[in-house]
Every structure is written in structure tokens, then in C-alpha cells.
Amino acid sequence: MLYPLIKNMLFTLDPERAHALTLTSLQRLEKSGVLSMMCADLQDAPVELMGLKFRNRVGIAAGLDKNAICIDALSALGAGHVEIGTVTPRPQEGNAKPRVFRLLEAQALINRMGFPNEGMDAVLPRLAARKHQAICGANIGKNASTPLEQATDDYLKCMRVLAPQADYITINVSSPNTLGLRNLQATDYLRPMLVALLEERVRLLPTLGRGLPLLVKIAPDLSDDDLYSMADLFLELRIDGVVATNTTLSRPSGLGSLAEQAGGLSGRPVHALSLATVSKLRQRLGAGFPIIGVGGISSAEHARAMRQAGADLVQIYTGLLYRGPSLIKEVAAALR
Question: What residues are labeled active site?
């Protein structure tokens, strides 16, 4: 009820400043117990997937809580899972500012953040300290300064460090904002990387005493041939799931003057593209292969469409900024 007023205030601020203020406020509200009271009427509808039990089908996409400072608050708002990150081995500032732009009429964002984060060593104790029981995944990537040929080493480092506290790991090879990163989606790069990560997981599992699902986050801009090649590789290597999709480099009509800004587009205009990707993946992967659908979900209708296209779970981010916390409850109820 109050969110339209809060949003009007936040949207007068620079997007990154507004984002930081929102996370700080959520932390305080969670510690006071207010958030739990706000969602006291949320009825869980547990879902088992990848050996994990999710309280409902809606989660928070990576990018919102890059440094794992708001896991409990987002869980208290009713999210069935929270994906933190993208986390890199070493802290990094990301790309030059300004790097986030609101497209108000389109209910969209363009960002060229470039994985700004405090690094895996800072994130680990925050994962360990979380109190709420929502599933928490760690989205991992390579540092911008790491050559593409050495990218696998960065992913391995992150997985080794975060595995003891993360419920699952998502391998981000699809952000458009780290130079060359999307090249890792090509099977010549992706196959050896995934093989190395799967072999490392085998070594880690005895120390974890539980499973550790590995997922891959893909772009919505892949050709059908590239998408199907990736899907076939996931089946061959028995990857645990796919997150579809990341932001897009395409620019649908009607975005306004800011459409010329470089970076990845998220929000409502991406929904159709992400929906088509999920549908093609489901057809290629068959029933039973876990798919998390993300991209432009800003209503119950969008969430149901993503589910019907083949997604087992959905994630929200940009829609949450425009609609507020009620979107979590709305989507969870729609997919109950």
C-alpha cells in the first residue's frame, strides 16, 4: 500500500543510490520484525527440485543482492529462494558510472554494472550468518581482469569457497557487461569449464555432506542453433539446471531516448524473449530438467505464462523495483 509513495521518493535518487538505500532499509526492517509481520499471511506451497525444498516457486534473481547483505530480509518478504551475486574471486568496482538507467514508461532498466562486488571472502560469512530458511544460491563469475583463457580458474575458486554455505551454484556466462564473458557460452569454452566444475564438485561433496546443484545462466540473445547446442551439452554432462535468462542486448521499440545506452536491458520488454527461450529449452531438454525462468516478470499473468512455457521456478528483480514487495506474494499465490 505504501510502496507507490516510497517508489516516488526512491525514483528521485540516482538508481544505485536508491538501490543501496533500499537494501539498508530492508535490513533494518527485517531486524525489527516488520517484514515478517508484512508476510504473515503468505501461505507456502513447497516445491522439491534439484534435491532442494523451496517454500514456493518465486525467487529473487541475482543482481539485487550482490554482496549477500539482504538474504534474511528478502526471505522474510516471502521469497522461496534468493540468488546472491554475481560474486567474483576478488573484489572489483565494476564499470564506470553512471551505469544504471531507468526506462520508466517501459518499466525497464538498462545496466552496464560489470559485476561490482566485495568478493567471495566477504560474501562467505554473510551466507553462513543467514537465519531464514529460504534456499540461497550463489551466482558466480570471473573478474574483469582475468583473461578468458583463465576464466575456469575464477569459477573454480568461487565454487570452492562458497560451496559450504550455498545451497546451489549458478555459473554466470551470460552477462553482457564483462568484456568477452558471453564467449564462454560457446561449447568450445563451456564444455571444458563445466567438466572442470563437475569434477571439482565430486571432490567437494564428501566435505559438504549434501548435494550441490550446478546451474548455468544463459542469455536471451542466443540463436536457436547455439541454444540447442547448449541444451544438448547440459543433458550430456548432466548439469542440474538452467537459469533463463539474463539481460538482453536487443532493443525492442518503444523504449524511449535512453534505449541508446549500452548495457543489458531488463524488465517488461524482455519478457517475451525470455519466455520464448524457456519454451525452446523445455522442448529440447524434455520434461524433468529443472528450468528457472527469469526476465520481465512483473505480474501474476507473466509468472503463469513463464510456468506454462516450462519453468519450474521463476525469479524477479526489475519488476520488484517497479511493483514493490507485493509482487512476491502475488507471484507466489499465482503459482501455488
Answer: 175
